[in-house]
Amino acid sequence: MQGDLFGAAVSLPPDGLPADAASSATPPSSAPRRPSRVRPAPVAQDWHALARRLPAPLRFGVSTWSYPGWDGLVWDGEYSPGVLSRHGLGAYHRHPLLRTVCVDRAFWRPLTAGQYAAYAGQVDDDFRFVVKCPALVTDAQVRGETGKALKPNPDFLDPRLAVEHFVRPASTGLGDRLGVLVFQLSPLPLGWLGRPAPLLDRLGLMLAAVRQALAGHPAVIVAVEVRDPELLGPALADTLKAHGATFCLGLHGKMPPIGAQLPMLRALWPGPLVCRWSLNRVFGAYGYADAQKKHAPFDTLVSEDPHTRAELARAIRGITGAGQPAYVTVSNDAEGCAPLSIQKLAQAVLL
Asked: Which segments carry the region annotation Disordered (predicted)?
């Protein structure tokens, strides 16, 4: 039964820059080091036995990796954020539990094929990237520096721009290391929310162009994340299914809890799991700044969310148990320390 498959207690409807991880037994000096190379934390090797027991199709990772507070967890000392953003990925990918990473940086500005290739050159053949489409394509509004909407975006969901500024450079630069392309639709104005049919038509045209551009990369997953609960339902699921895309679970205050989002994946079954755990719901829809303030320096679990963790672990078990891939990326804003959240998630998957 589908309910058993996903293991969630809900009824089925009919229908930055990346980061690194490592740790060290010796406390660093008070001044952050500025070496040309970042080394992984020796303690990270203690997680090899756990990693070997996890389902092979499962990939955990973080979103944005330049955190000095991960000293002793991912890094072997306290490096500056700048050093980590430039050199941390090579150490990060050597952590046995971290087999993917979300390149959030691409959301704010398109990256070139050369920039993607530089990322790919820092990891081994088994590593895969999750990459977010630039907001110039996925935001219906043109926004100012403060994030305030200034005017409608004439390029919203434009197929040509999605391919030229995102799909081609990412697939060319990352090659076989590209795992998931995420199209995160920013919160929509009422003009679009009140007209779901033309919105989904436009989304479908873009997804069709994306799939065509990925003809040489059949293993790449295309996922759509929304920030408006009103879009959850059969119409969105039908559009995604028609174009070989999946729904990305977006776990944060703007969307309902995970249990209310899982019916979207059931409607698309069989298919992969793509999940981005971005923000603990206790901080509300706009609580990123509060979460950052409470959780810094991101070296411990401050705001644990055992319910979300348990529900997500059940979904992972069901989906990977059926042989489907699962990409789960976690932010520090979820519980306070993404690497420790991932360790607890990994343990929960094996319960």
From this structure: 1-42
Count CA atoms within 13 Å of residue 141 on its CB side.
15
Alpha carbon of 43 to those of 25, 67, 71, 75, 192: distances in Å?
A: 8, 17, 10, 9, 49
DSSP H helical ranges for 35-74: 48-53
The token duo for 15 is 């229908």
Return the CATH fold of 2-349: TIM Barrel (3.20.20)
Helices (H), the chain: 2-6, 48-53, 81-87, 89-92, 105-108, 113-120, 135-138, 159-162, 168-174, 190-193, 196-213, 234-242, 258-267, 288-295, 306-321, 332-335, 338-349
Q: Which residues contact 120 (CB under 8 A, 6 or more apart)?
A: 129, 173, 174, 175, 177
87: its two tokens? 């050199």
**Phi/psi of residue 87, each to 5°?**
-125, 0
Q: Is the pLDDT of residue 85 over 70?
A: yes
DSSP for 183-206 reads EEPPPPPHHHHT-HHHHHHHHHHH
Tokens at 23, concatenated = 């740790």
Across all residues in the chain, what is the average pLDDT? Answer: 90
Question: What does the radius of gyration of the chain's CA atoms come to, in whole angstroms?
Answer: 19
String of DSSP letters for 283-325: G-TT-HHHHHHHHTT--S-SS--HHHHHHHHHHHHHHHHTT--
Distances from the Cα of 40 to the Cαs of 109, 203, 222, 325, in angstroms?
Answer: 29, 41, 31, 27
Q: Are 53 and 76 within 8 A, CB to CB?
A: no
Q: Which two tokens stand for residue 282?
A: 């206790």
Contact 19, 70 (CB under 8 A): yes
pLDDT digits (tens, 9 = 90+) for 32-79: 444 448 999 998 888 999 999 999 999 999 988 999 999 999 999 999
Reported as a single tens digit per residue, the pLDDT across 149-173 is 899 999 999 999 999 999 999 999 9
Largest Cα–Cα distance in the chain?
59
Q: How many Cβ atoms from other residues are within 10 Å of residue 25's Cβ?
A: 9
